[in-house]
Specification:
The complex is a heterotrimer of chains A (177), B (417) and C (320). Chain A is mostly helical. Chain A is 38% helix and 5% strand. With 417 residues, chain B is mainly alpha-helical. In chain B, helix 7 packs antiparallel against helix 12 and helix 14 packs antiparallel against helix 15. The chains are: A mainly alpha (177), B mainly alpha (417), C alpha+beta (320). The interface between B and C is large, with 62 and 61 residues.
Amino acid sequence: MLKRKRIMRTALVLSTGAFLFAPGHALSMEAEDAPESVTIDAMAKHYEPVEFDHLLHVDYASCQECHHHTTGVKVADPDCIRCHANSPEADEVSCAECHAVDRFTTKYLLTHNDPELYHIDKPGLKGAYHLNCIGCHVIITGPTGCQDCHTMTEAGEKMFNTGKHAPAKGASSDAHH
Amino acid sequence: MKLFSKKRPEIPIVHHTKEDGSAWTIKEKLCLGLSIDDYKKQFIRNPVNWFMAMILAIGIPLILGRYAFGLGWVTHASNDYPWGLFLGFGLFGMVPLSASGFMLGTTVELFGRKDFHAIERLALLNGLLGYFFAVVFLEIDLGMPWRLPYPMFVSLGPAAVLFLVAWHVATYLSVQIAEVLPALFEWMGWLKGKRIIRKYVLGLTVAGIILSTLHQGALGALFTYAPAKVHPLWISAQFQWIHFFVSSIFGGLSMVIIASTLIINFMNWRCDDDFKDNLDYITIGLAKGASYAMITYLVIKLVAVAHDQEWTYLLTGWGSYYMLELGVAVVLPMFMFALGIRNNWVTLIRFGAFITAIGIIWNRLNTSLICFNWQMYQEIPHWKEVWITVTIYAIYFMTYRFIVYRLPIVYEWKGER
Amino acid sequence: MKKLSRRNFIKGGLATTAAVAVLKEKKSKASGDFDNYPEGMGVIVDLTRCVGCRSCEAACNKEQGLPEPAVPFDDFSVFDYMHHGEKRRTDETAYTIVNRYNPPAIDHPLFRKVQCNHCNEPACLTSCFVNAYTKTPEGAVIYDASVCVGCRTCMVACPFYIPTFKYSSAFTPRIMKCIFCYDTRLKEGKPPACVEACPQEALTFGKRVDVLEIGKQRIRRNPDKYVDHIYGEHEVGGTAWMYLSSVPFDQVGFDTHVPKEPIINSVKEFLAMVPMVLTIWPGLFVGFHLLATKKDRVREMEKEAELKKAKENDEKEEQA
């Protein structure tokens, strides 16, 4: 009878301790929690949506390189550690949660009137993707061309006067002679 | 005309009436008192007219093409060099050479130097025609020439230097027309008109000198809008307007010397004794005025270099070009004038005047085209642009000649004045 | 007449005081003081971000209805195009272009977007004698083709060689330049087409004061990445479009010798002369005239005096 009570008490202490201490340790998201593939289509107009191979990238980079501190992994940039040394994982880690699609609308720009706003240079979603992805691909050889990640749509070909919408050969809009 | 004037005593026309008492009609006056056949004969005989015909044969279609197809058809359509020969030569070059109007007007009417009276009308005509054709050149160059009155009546931008140029040239042109009209009225026989204008001579002259000072200077000040684009030796924010104004003084006087030289040599039949006898004295007098202006100009140029500390630029290739321009265009003719004045060598003075006029055009082309965008490639004007410029100048020459052939410019009207 | 009660007097007094307090004091500013309208927008162009994709050129072309280009916008051979030793520049078919530079110190090319810088005190505006240019409160420098006469002084004045002329047109030529997408976007607070199109967010749009602060912060946070200078902060009196670069600006095609003051300052020396000449010359030259004709007038006076004397003598003789 006494032995069972001791075992139960130890178990209670151990489990309580586990629940108390565990969050302090790196209970960050695990790689297994990550989706295998993400379809990025928030701004698909001139190019097709990107089929992002998330699983592949998990092997290449640590979570914080793309998700900053939101997965609970400690950030590397000393400038960020100043405030985010102990930031826990966030509820949402999707890029679009913080990086706005419409970065330059009047509504968004009004937020810059807040004198206490620190992150005044937060890029919009399109900028965040390209700066981050291409920024890394340039260092660790990866796709850097526009169509390497997303093919151009019909609308895109129109906008860039390319493909089916390319100007006729020999046509010159150059006024200079 | 020389032959005709020898054969018939009443040619050239200096009276309202012929020897038999009947009046010359305007048509006859226009034909220089000759029959239509005789007029055509003397016109065709003149080799200068063949040269003019050649120039106009290509030039007139080019001008029509400029309006039909746009400026891009006659220029290189350069966005780096928006101004070409039409403005560089036609406006910036011809306007200082036409400063003779206010110079001689001031000399005779304001300073009371009646000894220059014989050349006064020629100088006024030179000024009027020069400004008039400068406006013609402007109308060729403007993208939308039908909008010429806009800065005056439609949309005013008074802070701009060009606004001043536009208003002043328009006003000054009116002043000059008024100053030359007496000659026309004399010739036509409408003496009332002449007397009305003569009443206002002093006011017109003072207006002329105010307007001229400002717009001659303003044409220079236009380049202060691009202080980094013109080579430092050719631009000075503080003194540019003085450079352009002072050089217009000796430019205008030199142009009068040139015009009178051409007239006395090739239009001798038209000149009366008063003009012929006094021309040498007057030429020396004009050279005196010009040389004072030239030494002033050289001093102010030196001051400008010192003020902006541009001495090191003088040691560069551009610096050598600058000193060449000053030397050949100003110093050399100044010495020619000095020698000519001292020794009464009128021919030397005339050569000096010719060099001076070329020098003024050279300086204006340097400022507006050659030393403009000095750190970039050099733009060479399109041949059509060159030809059109020559064509308009030829038309200016022919207009000048047309008027001097007829109106009492280099002779005194013997009839009722 | 209404009786002025104490209550009404106090009410009136308070109302007037409130009105006076609310009315803003009008400050007069000399040129060179103008820092853009307070709500004026701006863009900071970060050359470390631009990859030369030319999306901005394509977007501008469509937004402004410009002619079809000679080659597609994803053709990068245009970066090799040279005209008389100069790289591409704006022309009547392109309000903005991107050029590539190969600065010696770095191992990869840098790209620079060229467009109207929408200066605070534009040279084009101050040089225009028909008032064709306007600096709008939103910060754009726009152009009115209905009053332009085509004199092309603005093209001479612009230190950045931006305005271009439609030389190809015979009857409707005009100046062609970037207008910050004012008519279609900026008026409604929307960003210009090029800013929206840029994938790398090399163009950051916002109030000029805000984007300037962003630029300064980028330099502060990455001192090794950027040259410590924002081109356009003070150049020609400050421009709405500014630049950040990782190499000295003259290596990427910027003219570092443009004055730090607005262009109008170099013209003011002459403009100050104008009222002086207008007021002094008349007196001066009439004075000269009086001096010059002094002898004649003295002679006339003497003649008149003589005549008068002679007349008097005659009268005396007659009387005698």
